[in-house]
Design a protein that fits this description.
The chain is of the alpha/beta class and about 325 residues long. The protein contains ten helices and 15 strands. About 50% of the residues are buried. The structure holds threonylcarbamoyladenylate and magnesium ion.
Amino acid sequence: MPETRLLPADPAGIEDAAAILRAGGRVALPTETVYGLGADARDDRAVAGIFAAKDRPEFNPLIVHVPDADAAAAHVEMPKIAQRLADAFWPGPLTLVLPLRADAGIAPLVTAGLPTLAVRVPAHPVAQTLLHAFGGPVAAPSANPSGRISPTTPEHVLAGLAGRIEAVIDAGPCDVGVESTILGFDADGTARLLRPGGLAAEDIAGVLGYAPLPGTDGSINAPGQLASHYAPSGRVRLNATDARPGEVHLGFGPVAGDLTLSESGDLAEAAATLFRRFHELDAMGAEQIAVAPIPEEGLGLAINDRLRRAAAPR
Ligand code: TXA
Ligand code: MG
């Protein structure tokens, strides 16, 4: 990994940042809430790189950043109420969790296989310029190592991630300093506050005509309550070097399998492929799935966390 570049927040620096994103790299970018660790949301490998840099022991779904509501509508269904909230609060510190469009083109690792996508239109002018220059959706969790607090200055980002990411855009401290408010919707359209944040619930209530309900009704996955995450519908057996009769074998490295997470035994490739393979196993109608051993190191921790959840009794 090369030294992390500190890019100036001027047109040349932002163009360099866009070029790094186009090449599948990671750039920490300022938003009005906190610094985000951005990568191309359409590129599984680039998104796997975010998890690798953060040393996250599990795959949480990530927020996708777009320049405006029209760009958001290319990736998610925008019911009328979402459009009204977007009109009122975008750009700004509001994230909406909405149904993922079939043609969204978002890497499955971004949503951790969920049928919904969290979208946000940041207000920071540097984030806006970068999103326009890059011309695509940017997945970005807060730019801190797992378990550490969110960074609100480029110095915070470097303290946690120097040597682990390609670049940081230096745009000074963030205005809001806390993460965006996350809103989800029940099937009947009722709004739920999934995470309090930089936009007050009272302001949201002003547009909705009621206060968003707390937490989740179980049909949506609130942050930190992701136990019921996507898993293939077949029964899953782990650490399987061989398949038993009737099992579809998901391989890794030397364990070839019927299909593989990574033929070369590359954990970043396995992370990038994991949720795609889950979907393929469902499409094949696999009822019993055997999964090759995955080393418990680096991205293997997050992969094994997800596999153990998939294998847990349901
Ligand atoms: O202000 C912010 O939102 C910052 C800046 C960088 O934009 N980003 C941020 O991302 O806080 P992160 O990854 O630290 O938090 C994202 C939260 C997670 O708790 C995750 O569980 C939730 O959003 N989330 C993402 N997609 C979701 C989905 N489809 N359903 C429910 N929750 C989701
Ligand atoms: Mg975070």
